[in-house]
Design brief:
By secondary structure, the chain is of the alpha/beta class. Strands 1, 2, 3, 4, 5, 6, 7, 8 and 9 form a 9-stranded mixed β-sheet that branches. Helix 1 runs parallel beside helix 2, helix 7 runs parallel beside helix 9 and helix 10 crosses helix 11. It is elongated, with a radius of gyration of 22 Å.
């Protein structure tokens, strides 16, 4: 545990801002300035804002605390490029992400530093969050899995930590020359996590609620949902290709993508063949975990579609050699934990 909150490892907090609601922005910055852990540099990238009230909040923060640096982009470059600009400026041992409309609990950075100093094999530590609307806590989010499971689940979805809760080891990023991938204006965290995991990094979620996540109509996630999904799909395909050497053709990829989206595309045999092809050509992930996770995904999709009375699912989906392998003792044990903990 860090005893000296002023002279422990430097933490670089990176915040990107674009015409943020000044009240939200003020709360977000204040929550960082009031952290119990004091050895911070706070790098705020203003991504071409033209809202006067927003700019005044940034200027006031810069003047009131020497730890704050504000950099103004000449034009709106997007979140990915702005985060890379902050990353290049960061001098800390750890990089902490923060969104311009969220609120960090006062001990968030201290807890993150303590965790990463204790668990030196962990590359990224996130936290659980409370979704907040008008300041009210609604529900707790976040998941914790073994690293081999997480690496497999990136084939199916973004299985990383909630992006604005992340603390990352800077030396790992520098060693492997990892930055936010500027091919992706959206879902840049998904691409970052897959790059980190592919290089052997470990991603964990601390079992504490340390960030209050604000939900509103103007946040990037809500305004660009379709583009986020499109970028996520491209990143998912890229990761699948990395794992199994571009083994899936266009039709097989559509079949696999539909599976991860809990839809049914193609025939039963084509679906099973796509799974077998991934298993056979896997050259990176733990083979046993991959096989079991794909089998769990098969049953999870089938159950969801069956409950929706989807006509594409018949009894044959559940009564075939592949599906029935669930009843092997080792798979039954895995399924028990999988479905109890909601996958």
């Amino acid at each position: 545990m860090i005893k000296d909150r002023k002279n422990g490892p430097l933490v670089s907090v990176v915040i990107s801002v674009y015409n943020e609601n000044p009240l939200y922005l003020k709360e977000a910055i204040r929550s960082v300035l009031e952290q119990t852990y004091r050895n911070l540099e706070i790098i705020i990238i203003d991504d071409g804002s033209n809202d006067r009230a927003c700019l005044e909040v940034l200027d006031k923060a810069r003047r009131m605390d020497a730890r704050v640096t504000v950099v103004h982009n000449q034009e709106n470059a997007g979140l990915t490029k702005s985060l890379n600009a902050g990353l290049e400026m960061a001098k800390g041992k750890y990089l902490a992400r923060m969104d311009s409309d969220d609120i960090s609990e006062k001990n968030r950075i201290e807890e993150g530093v303590n965790y990463l100093e204790k668990y030196t094999s962990v590359t990224v530590a996130g936290t659980r969050i409370c979704e907040a609307v008008s300041g009210k806590q609604l529900r707790i989010m976040g998941e914790q899995h073994f690293s081999q499971v997480t690496a497999v689940r990136f084939l199916f979805r973004n299985a990383g930590v909630v992006h604005p809760t992340a603390m990352i080891r800077m030396d790992f990023l520098k060693k492997h020359n990892i930055r936010y991938n500027e091919k992706y204006r959206y879902a840049q965290d998904y691409a970052l996590w897959t790059d980190i995991v592919f290089k052997g990094g470990i991603i964990r979620t601390m079992p504490k609620v340390l960030v209050r996540y604000r939900i509103h109509n103007n946040q990037i996630t809500n305004k660009t949902r379709d583009r986020q999904l499109l970028c996520s799909r491209k990143i998912q395909r890229e990761y699948v290709d990395q794992v199994c050497g571009s083994c899936l053709d266009k039709k097989e990829w559509e079949i696999f993508y539909s599976m991860t989206a809990f839809r049914m595309t193609g025939s039963l045999s084509e679906n099973i063949n796509a799974i077998k092809k991934i298993e056979k050509n896997n050259r990176y992930l733990n083979r046993t975990v991959l096989q079991k996770e794909l089998l769990m995904l098969w049953w999870q999709r089938g159950w969801k579609l069956w409950r929706r009375k989807n006509g594409s699912i018949t009894w044959m989906y559940f009564v075939n050699t592949y599906a029935l392998s669930l009843f092997r003792p080792d798979n039954m044990v895995y399924a028990l934990f999988y479905f109890i903990f909601k996958g």
